[in-house]
């Protein structure tokens, strides 16, 4: 650090220009008469005594009489350095707090927060994903996927169901062919149109950013069940239902899991309507009491507001009003519904179809 930078630093620490100049001169000369310090620094002799008195009060220097003249020498700088370090730490902490308020506004107690930087959306999503217990639905570009890959890997390790949509332009669609998804997602689909960053965590947290151009990188963070449900349908309709699978973690002979009852109904309706009984385990909660429920039994019937087609299949549109799974368990029948279930006994958060090696061939 040159002398000008050092002088600027002392002034940032609270010294006046005269005080900074005088202190540097004292450091350079060691012990010197006050008048010599005034001559070296250009400080008026009528002011030098007040300047040195202020420096002495703040423990930078000490003054004494020598040969009937006021002299000055520097004090041990350890206390000065300690004070400067404390100031620096305080300023650094203040800077971090300002950055935190700029990038990551507090969302507790608020249903919607608007953030000014896309990085803030990513950071908030990572924090929520670390606490996810059931599902993550996320739509990303290839570069965004790499940014969130570690938290998705951790979620998969914890048994979280990860539905991933990778969005590219048609000209970049080959990029997806080179990507590895094992251990990062449960299911992956590829959308050949650019799409906004969209992530939903455990049905109650939404993270969204349009990123349409560099000056429009605001983001929305939602902490609300009802509003997240709106984004759930956006995800299902725009990022999921019409786009092809490129990866599925399910292998022959393993359990098949669903976090969306309508998708489950859509897949199994043809064989259930044909009389096939499917062993299943349902995790969810009682619609009346809100208590957590886990039921194991057999799926025996599918109920929908619209009748199935001739081949027994049901479209997502047909399932928009009602899609109920009838599960026989504990000697009785339970109606199993999806998000926002009102007609059923249980609102499911996960459906696990057991023994697919017995019945899965009938789905093909």
UniProtKB/TrEMBL annotation:
- Domain Transcription regulator TrmB N-terminal intervals: 10-67
Tell me which domain of life the UniProt entry assigns to the organism this sequence originates from: Archaea
Which residues belong to any copy of the Transcription regulator TrmB C-terminal domain? 112-354
Can you tell me which family this protein belongs to?
A: Belongs to the transcriptional regulator TrmB family.
Q: What is this protein called?
A: Transcriptional regulator
What CDD domains does the entry give? Answer: PLDc_like_TrmB_middle
Q: Which PANTHER family match?
A: HTH-TYPE TRANSCRIPTIONAL REGULATOR TRMBL2 (PTHR34293:SF1)
Q: InterPro entries, from UniProt?
A: TrmB-like, Tscrpt_reg_TrmB_C, Tscrpt_reg_TrmB_N, WH-like_DNA-bd_sf, WH_DNA-bd_sf
Gene3D superfamilies from the UniProt entry? Winged helix-like DNA-binding domain superfamily/Winged helix DNA-binding domain
């Amino acid at each position: 650090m040159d002398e000008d930078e050092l002088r600027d630093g002392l002034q940032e620490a609270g010294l006046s220009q005269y005080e900074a100049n005088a202190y540097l001169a004292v450091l350079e000369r060691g012990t010197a008469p006050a008048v010599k310090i005034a001559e070296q620094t250009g400080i008026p002799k009528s002011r030098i005594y007040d300047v040195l008195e202020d420096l002495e009060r703040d423990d930078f220097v000490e003054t004494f009489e020598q040969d009937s003249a006021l002299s000055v020498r520097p004090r041990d700088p350890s206390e000065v350095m300690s004070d400067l370090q404390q100031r620096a730490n305080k300023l650094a902490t203040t800077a971090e707090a300002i950055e935190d308020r700029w990038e990551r506004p507090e969302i507790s107690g608020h249903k919607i927060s608007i953030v000014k930087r896309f990085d803030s959306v990513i950071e908030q999503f990572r924090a929520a994903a670390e606490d996810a217990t059931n599902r993550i639905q996320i739509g990303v570009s290839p570069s965004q996927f790499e940014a969130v890959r570690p938290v998705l890997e951790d979620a998969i390790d914890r048994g979280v169901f990860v539905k991933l949509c990778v969005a590219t332009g048609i000209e970049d669609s080959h990029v997806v062919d080179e990507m590895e998804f094992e251990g990062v997602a449960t299911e992956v689909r590829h959308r050949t149109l650019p799409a906004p960053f969209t992530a939903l965590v455990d049905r109650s947290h939404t993270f969204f950013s349009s990123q349409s151009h560099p000056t429009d990188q605001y983001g929305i963070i939602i902490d609300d069940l009802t509003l997240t449900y709106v984004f759930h349908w956006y995800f299902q309709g725009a990022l999921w239902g019409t786009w092809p699978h490129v990866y599925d973690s399910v292998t022959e002979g393993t359990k098949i899991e669903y976090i969306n009852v309508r998708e489950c109904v859509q897949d199994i309706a043809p064989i259930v309507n044909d009389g096939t009984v499917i062993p299943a385990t349902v995790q969810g909660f009682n619609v009346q009491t809100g208590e957590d429920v886990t039921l194991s039994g057999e799926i025996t019937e599918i109920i929908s507001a619209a009748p199935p087609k001739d081949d027994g299949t049901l479209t997502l549109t047909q399932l928009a009003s009602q899609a109920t799974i009838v599960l026989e368990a504990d000697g009785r029948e339970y109606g199993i519904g999806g998000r926002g279930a009102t007609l059923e006994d249980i609102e499911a958060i996960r459906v696990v179809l057991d023994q697919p090696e017995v019945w899965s061939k009938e789905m093909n």
